[in-house]
Amino acid sequence: MGRLQLVVLGLACCWAVASAAKLGPVYTEGGFVEGVNKKLGLLGDSVDIFKGIPFAAPTKALENPQPHPGWQGTLKAKSFKKRCLQATITQDSTYGDEDCLYLNIWVPQDRKQVSRDLPVMIWIYGGAFLMGSGHGANFLSNYLYDGEEIATRGNVIVVTFNYRVGPLGFLSTGDANLPGNYGLRDQHMAIAWVKRNIAAFGGDPNNLTLFGESAGGASVSLQTLSPYNKGLIQRAISQSGVALSPWVIQKNPLFWAKKVAEKVGCPVDDTARMAKCLKVTDPRALTLAYKMPLAGMEYPMLYYLGFIPVIDGDFIPDDPINLYANAADIDYIAGINNMDGHLFASIDMPAINKNNKEVTEEDFYKLVSGLTMTKGLRGAKTTFDVYTESWAQDPSQENKKKTVVDFETDILFLVPTEIALAQHRANAKSAKTYSYLFSHPSRMPVYPKWMGADHADDIQYVFGKPFATPSGYRPQDRTVSKAMIAYWTNFAKTGDPNMGHSAVPTQWEPYTSENGSYLEITKKMDGSSVKRGLRTNFLRYWTLTYVALPTVTDQEATPVPPTGDSEATPVPPTGDSEATPVPPTGDSEATPVPPTGDSEATPVPPTGDSEATPVPPTGDSEATPVPPTGDSEATPVHPSGDSEAAPVPPTEDSKGAQMPVATPVPATGDSESAPVPAMGDSQDAPVPLTSDSKGAQMPAVIGF
Hints:
This protein has helices at 3-18, 148-154, 166-170, 182-197, 215-225, 253-264, 271-279, 283-288, 342-348, 361-371, 376-387, 397-427, 459-462, 465-468, 475-494, 536-545, and strands spanning 26-28, 31-34, 36-39, 46-54, 74-76, 86-87, 94-95, 102-109, 118-124, 138-139, 142-143, 157-161, 203-213, 235-239, 331-337, 433-438, 517-521, 530-532. It is 26% helix and 12% strand. The protein starts with a helix and ends in a 159-residue tail after the last helix. Helix 9 (342-348) crosses helix 12, helix 10 packs across helix 11 and helix 12 crosses helix 16. It contains 16 helices and 18 strands. The chain is α/β, with parallel strands linked by helices and 704 residues long. Residues 6-18, 560-581, 585-623 and 630-702 have low confidence and may be disordered. The protein has a single domain (86-553, 612-704), classed as Alpha/Beta hydrolase fold, catalytic domain (Rossmann fold), CATH 3.40.50. This is Bile salt-activated lipase.
């Protein structure tokens, strides 16, 4: 090529860069905003990035969010705002701000003209409704929830935002004085703001897709079920969390409100006086008045996860299982990671990650009995037998440790997700339903060789981290990321993950109640990646056999949360200190009963019936649909327990039984605990290793 041709080519490239389309200042309902146009190469493509646009006014403690009054001049939207006020990882101080309701937007541009009518994807972060932010964990300005890769690869607009968490987001007295769900209402305000304003950024306001992971996935699910969002949302993706998960709805919020009130010196005998006092208390004091136990838990963490969404009769008007008609026209993807429960099993039983430690039958039985208290002794024994059936043939430690992980994955993620899919499909009108299983193994070098995909492992691939930080990843990781971005963004565009802007490795078959179809996401995908009947035998056990067992209806299995010192290790209500459960030995009377309640004990949240995730009732021809189990005789029978055993599912069958409850979250600072990914804390996120192909992956939001 001659020198003149090189000069001409160079000038052409420079002209392309110089002439790339960009938005410039954008007019919104609050006023003008100006972001940054980032060039992506010599061909003229770019992305307009807006960080820190207010979508609501600065918050007031324990009040619903209010519209932003607007601003004069042009708002420079060029840096992320502080997260909402929350406790630090050590829980001895706070960070963030009350003025936190801001959102961030990524708009892809080509060199010809500014984008118009693009699909819009709105991300909701996880973090147990206790922590997190719209930008996510970061290291050296590499933010986990940076929307650039999704936006530019999928040709969609990406929006992330902050919402209130912890007591400030979810404290409730269970009545009109403090109805709760402030964090959910923040989410709704962001969604509604996007609906009203995104056209000015080049988005299609009639094509909004919510997506989120863990507590964010459950939030996505709840937003689709809330009547407040009617007509706002076209599609939704729940990753490792749905509204029916057993860690999502708080059934006794007043108990937890009183705990905080006692700690900060507010009245507890009258909710109106309590509310008035809490609203004028230092919000930092409110935040620090609640601490998650960090180690030494005697019971599953659900009993201490106090500040989560509630059924308020308004934003969430009823038990979520009754609200699926509201999502009848919303296309839906829901799925889990194949070892989602590992992070929590690591805390309940640290031995699963240690080659020199063994998991015993006694260990596993104690775990099972703690997570099946609603069904008492029979529930523990039956569940133990089902999950240890393979141990006779394969008594290896690897098999036993995998069993522990599978057990927690099933309870916390798989079964509620399968029920949610069945509910969505049964109520769908125009909507389509898709299911997936993410199985690309975790790259945490400290994990066992048998490890699959842990909780939150999927996030880095959805957000394109193998492309954003290529030196920290392998080619196969980029293959997985490319496929997930293609499926997710195609779905946002058309409602069909197979059709849209990007090619996909194989056709993803829709889920129906008959086929139980799901896509397994791995590094090598083809026609065999479309499968049917995920863990059918165990799904059948939980939805048919387990729910038919008599339910414990008194205070027998109600652990008492720590009183006074919120960091105290919980103790059984009245039980015998030697009452650690042991595996069944054939004699049903030989197994100790789980700790029993004391009528004089401190009031506790109802952990038996009312706090569990409802499972479709059994035996009623009008019954709520159950996920396909492959059993032609799978029509459930009525449970034989008490008629007051469970909340009423949508079939008006008062005998509808329910799922077990369990909410372990990782302990921190426990030297026996397995290392876990960072907690979405921008100060604590590791960056992917740059030379070790097995290097640690991008940090993920821990908890739910």
